[in-house]
Specification:
Helix content: over 70%
Radius of gyration: 13 Å
Mean pLDDT: 91
Shape: elongated
Number of domains: 1
Number of helices: 2
Low-confidence stretches: none
């Protein structure tokens, strides 16, 4: 079992949940905090995807 790949998938799931929560917060109120949280979530998703690509090599 490739634990690096498993960890990358778990991190991707957590990142998706974080981004969804931030996206919902954007509808409640638009503030610097909600925008920065959403941007951070998107960056975490991109990073997770890149780790998955690297772990599959």
């Amino acid at each position: 079992m490739n634990y690096t790949l498993l960890g990358s998938y778990l991190f991707l799931i957590g990142s998706l949940l974080f981004a969804i929560n931030s996206f919902i917060d954007l509808f409640k109120e638009i503030s610097f905090h909600s925008i920065s949280s959403f941007c951070g979530g998107i960056l975490f998703i991109i990073g997770s995807y890149l780790f998955i690509i690297d772990a599959k090599k």
